[in-house]
Amino acid sequence: MKVNQDKCIGCGICVPYCPAFAISMVNGKAYIDEEMCFECGNCGRPRVVRCPTSAFEESEGVAVIPRKIRKFFSDPTISDAVTKVPGRGTEESKTNDVTGKVSHGEFGIGIEMGRPCHGTTLHQVEQMTRALAELNIEFEDCNPVYHLMEDPSKGTFPDEIKDERMVSCIIEFSAKEEKLEAVMDVIKRVANDLDTVFSLDLIYRFDDEGNIPIIQKLNDMGILVRKNAKVNLGMGRPMVKD
Amino acid sequence: MTHSLHRRGSEESLENDYIILVTAAYGYNHEGARDKLLQVLDVVFEAEPDNLGSNETGTIYSGVTLEEIKENLTDVPRVRCCFASKEKMFQVIKKINEMDLGLSVVISGLIDNVVDMANELDLKPHSVNLSLEVWGNVDSLPPEDILEVVTMCGHGLVASGLVEKYIEDVSIGKITPRKAAEKVSHPCVCGFFNPDRAEKIFEKYAPQ
Question: How is domain A1-60 classified at the CATH fold level?
Answer without folding.
Answer: Alpha-Beta Plaits (3.30.70)
